[in-house]
Amino acid sequence: xxxxxxxxxxxxxxxxxxxxxxxxxxxxxxxxxxxxxxxxxxxxxxxxxxxxxxxxxxxxxxxxxxxxxxxxxxxxxxxxxxxxxxxxxxxxxxxxxxxxxxxxxxxxxxxxxxxxxxxxxxxxxxxxxxxxxxxxxxxxxxxxxxxxxxxxxxxxxxxxxxxxxxxxxxxxxxxxxxxxxxxxxxxxxxxxxxxxxxxxxxxxxxxxxxxxxxxxxxxxxxxxxxxxxxxxxxxxxxxxxxxxxxxxxx
Length: 250
What we know:
One of its GO terms (molecular function) is 3-oxoacyl-[acyl-carrier-protein] reductase (NADPH) activity. This is 3-oxoacyl-[acyl-carrier protein] reductase. Its EC number is 1.1.1.100. Belongs to the short-chain dehydrogenases/reductases (SDR) family. By secondary structure, the protein is of the alpha/beta class. The chain is built from 7 helices and 7 strands, in the order βαβαβαβαβαβααβ. It has helices at 18-29, 42-54, 69-83, 108-129, 157-177, 204-210, 219-230, and strands spanning 9-13, 33-38, 59-63, 86-91, 133-142, 183-189, 241-244. Helix 3 (69-83) runs parallel beside helix 4 and helix 4 runs parallel beside helix 5. The longest helix has 22 residues, at 108-129.
């Protein structure tokens, strides 16, 4: 594989599992040194560091709670300090918490935490990264398919709103940062086979039936889209959303 990211440093939040881990592997395979955050499992993070180093790249894992603004800011600064540069920021960390409007059984604290992680952490990370990113840098956030125009099931209003807000912010940031050649984009996955949403899960057949391709995607499908957007061939793409959902949102 051509190492199109040789000499670059990437920070990936939520990089020890699922989609985030696939992004870490792909960017490392493309030549980038990696800093990634993780939430709880030091052992899992250590294995990911080993995988990156086996590809011949450097890796640093940093524990950070994405719901705590000071930890998000500290993560970005530590990522820059690890290799004395920062070229790529990928915001992959996220949570999915449901709750039907007006349902007294809904946990408002959990919904608030979802907004903290899915939206406020993205805003905080980008703001912290702007003065540290080199000109021509790349910012990519992981959204969700159809967030800007549909809610496919009851109970997901807070989730899709948090992701739609990230897409709106990204369009605004693309305007703000264009003069520096920094691109800002969103990748919107559909059903992706991870431990949080396995392709044999309880709603898998419904989601497969709703997609044009009739199947789940793999984390590597999302990672490929991210790799394209942070690579040299996507320098004229900014403020865009790239949907990777097998035709779910058609």
